[in-house]
Each structure stands twice: as C-alpha cells, then as structure tokens.
Amino acid sequence: MTATSPTERRPAVYLAGPDVFFDRPRECGQRLKDLAANFGFVGLYPLDAVVELTHVQPNASISPAERVVIKRENAARIREANMAMIRDADAVCANVLPFRGPSADVGTAWKMGYAAGLGKIVASYSHNAQSYATRVLPDNFAVEDFALHDNFMLAGAQHFRTPETALQYILDVFRMRRETGRSP
Amino acid sequence: MKRVVSLADVTEIDLDGYVDERGIEYLGRAARQPDGTWRCAAVVESCLCVVELKLTPAVSP
C-alpha cells in the first residue's frame, strides 16, 4: 500500500477539512496523519503549522480598533501558514462534509481551489452521500442540480466516501505519474 | 449518588470516546443547537463528521 521505497522522499498530503474546529482537533489530525502514513504519505495537518500569534488579554488596555487589527493580523498569519503548507504538499485530501450549511467548509473549499490552481492532486471525501441539490433547503433561488456532492466547482477533485479511498486514489495517481516519468 | 439532570437544563453533554452500537465514535461534547437539535463531532466509517443526535432521557424503573 505504501507509496515509496525507504530511500525515496515520502510524498506529502495536506489534510484539509473542518475537523480543525472539532472539540479535539489535534486528535482528529493525528487520526488523519496515521491514515496518510498507512499509504506512505506524510500528512500535513493545518494545526501543525508553526504560527506566531499575538494574544491579547480581554482586559488589555487597547482600543477595539486595535483589537480588530490584531485579530486580522493573526488570521493573515494562519492563512499564510496554511498556504505555505499546501505549496509544500504534493496533494490535498479534503474532508468536504457539509459544515455549517449544505456545503463544504468554505476554508476547505478555498484550499482545494488553491491546490488545484497550483497543479496539485486534489481528492475529497465525505460520508454524506446526499447530493448538494438534495441538501439545499428550498428557497427562491435556483439550485444547480448536477447530481454532485457539492458545488460543481469542487467536482474537479475526485470525490470519495472515506479518507482511505481518497488517499488510495492519490497513491494511484502518484504511481501512474512515477511510471510515466512525471514527478508527483 | 446519582445526579438527575433534565435535558432542558443543559446545553452540552460530554460524549467523548463513547462508541454506540453502530460503531460511531463520538468526539468531545454534544451541543444543543438553537433549533433544539443536538450535534456532535464523530467518526463514522473513518470519516470525521458532524452527526445529529436524538437524546432519549433515561426513565427510572
């Protein structure tokens, strides 16, 4: 099942998803990294990034405007760290479970697009088997029903039901590329 | 001594590590949503998911 021989560099897979917002995010990350390791990949989890953030105490004597600036600077640092990890990765494996609505987590969706734009392999997974059109609550706006798991712009990524099958797909693409002389 | 708590009085329930009869493992706390439903992070067939729960109060014999 592994992707490399001991002398080869292990391909890196960025493990995107809203699991970073769950109650025990580091444990979620470790589960995913263990799964990735089973396929010979180095799993890159967003929370592994070393990001220097500015912490402001609630009673700190700074203005509300300064507090907003600091929060947004922190957000920018996290964003840049995530982007750097994706650039370092060979592929992205994204958990696109419907999150806070009928669609994938918006940050995860953005990362998938960023990775696709960089030419990375992108695969997604979700245990939710319903189509996007089924999940959207009726309103007065058009729903594009392409029988897809989510918005059609995410469908450029191969979609699977479990992280294992998504990682297997990534592994298969690596092997195919290696056989045809293309680097991961 | 058993502490009896009404579901109506709590907004979170710690389910961390609980595995139900279907093999779903719950992570962290279930939280009551504004619409009255309960949700919790869980592992379903190795997928990290958010699941909706039906909580049934235990009835004393």
Please explain how this structure is put together.
The complex is a heterodimer of chains A (184) and B (61). Chain A is built from 5 helices and 5 strands. Chain A has 184 residues and is α/β, with parallel strands linked by helices. Chain A is globular, with a radius of gyration of 18 Å. Chain A starts with 11 loop residues before the first strand and ends in a 5-residue tail after the last helix. The model of chain A has no long low-confidence stretch (mean pLDDT 92). Chain B starts with 11 loop residues before the first strand and ends in an 8-residue tail after the last strand. Chain B has no helices and 4 strands. The model of chain B has no long low-confidence stretch (mean pLDDT 86). The chains are: A alpha/beta (184), B mainly beta (61). Chain A binds chain B through residues 17, 19, 22-24, 27-28, 31-32, 35, 95, 97, 99, 125-128, 161-164, and chain B through 16, 27-29, 41, 43-50.
Q: Approximately what portion of the residues of chain B adopt beta-strand conformation? A: 35-45%
In the CATH hierarchy, the architecture of chain A is 3-Layer(aba) Sandwich
Question: If helices are DSSP runs of H or I spanning 4 or more residues, what is the number of helices of chain B?
Answer: 0
Sheet bearing the most strands of chain B, described?
4 strands, antiparallel
What distance separates the N and C termini of chain B? Answer: 16 Å
Task: Specify the structural class of chain A.
Answer: alpha/beta
**What does the oligomeric state look like here?**
heterodimer
CATH fold label of chain A: Rossmann fold
Summed over residues and divided by their number, the pLDDT of chain A gives a mean of 92
Radius of gyration of chain B: 13 Å
Assign an overall shape of chain A.
Answer: globular
List the helices and strands and how they pair.
The complex is a heterodimer of chains A (184) and B (61).
Chain A: E1 12-16, H1 25-38, E2 42-44, H2 64-88, E3 91-95, H3 106-117, E4 121-125, H4 132-135, E5 158-160, H5 163-179
Parallel strand pairs in A: 1-2, 1-3, 3-4, 4-5
Chain B: E1 12-14, E2 25-32, E3 38-44, E4 47-53
